[in-house]
Write a structure and sequence with these properties.
Serine Threonine Protein Phosphatase 5, Tetratricopeptide repeat; 83% helix
Length: 135
């Protein structure tokens, strides 16, 4: 991410949080909402703001599960983003994230069983690393 893009993203983050509140208040579940939450969560994660990133990424995953189903690549991508957040997060956040991921670990097994080998190799690798290093 170049400096100009990073500065723009930083300026837009308060608007993303305002949108997050409206998405939650009105229980909006559409793909553009999931994309906004996902991007804001990833931006927060890249800045080391793990506690801020967690609810954004969790909410994005929830919306994608509702709208796309468990076997969609965007749903798997959201689950992967949470696994990566967990790998890089401090211990205080790790416990709550671990509980959330455990509930979704079975989903990843289902996704793996439904799709041919190699379709989501990084999701499987990231989840395996997460549970191997944190259990």
């Amino acid at each position: 991410m170049d400096r100009t893009h990073g500065q723009r993203s930083q300026r837009l983050l308060p608007q993303a949080h305002a949108c997050e509140a409206l998405i939650e208040q009105w229980d909006l579940a559409f793909l553009a909402a999931a994309q906004l939450l996902n991007e804001a969560g990833l931006y927060s994660k890249e800045r080391g703001k793990y506690p801020e990133a967690l609810p954004l990424l969790e909410h994005a995953l929830t919306i994608r599960e509702k709208t796309l189903g468990l076997d969609h690549s965007d749903t798997a991508s959201s689950l992967n983003n949470l696994a990566l957040l967990y790998q890089w997060s401090p211990a205080s956040l790790a416990l709550s994230t671990r509980r959330y991921l455990i509930s979704h670990f079975e989903i990843s097994k289902l996704i793996s069983s439904l799709l041919p080998n190699g379709v989501f190799p990084m999701l499987q690798v990231n989840l395996q690393r997460t549970f191997a290093t944190r259990t």
